[in-house]
């Protein structure tokens, strides 16, 4: 070490050792705090990643549910449309049969009337 004005040496072995021990303890405290902070940051990042993944999974589930619901609705609408077409077809066939019966009946009446004359 350097010398002071009076020519004596500043600090002997015990003083140096004390400073070394203090420096070592200070470095240990700094390491402990920095390790805690690093661990905290790591857990925060891990939690954020889990939340991000969970949100991704939830959005996929929501989209799948919406797709299933849309497909189910479209299938019901298609079934309703097919049923309506069948019903309309059956009604038109029934009305045609009814008209044909009327025509046949009218023709039979006409033939009867003609035979009578």
Task: Chart the SSEs and their pairings.
Layout: H1 13-116
SSE pattern = H
Q: Span from first to last CA? A: 153 Å
* Secondary-structure class: mainly alpha
Shape, per Cα inertia axes: rod-shaped
Instruction: List unreliable stretches of 5+ residues.
Output: none
Strand fraction band?
under 5%
Most strands sheet? none
| Percent range of helical residues | over 70%
Q: Report the average pLDDT across residues.
A: 83
Tell me the radius of gyration: 49 Å
Number of DSSP-assigned strands: 0
Keywords:
117 residues, mainly alpha, 1 helix
Structural description of this entry:
This protein is mainly alpha-helical. It has one helix and no strands.
Task: Give a brief rundown of this model.
With 117 residues, the chain is mainly α. It has one helix spanning 13-116.
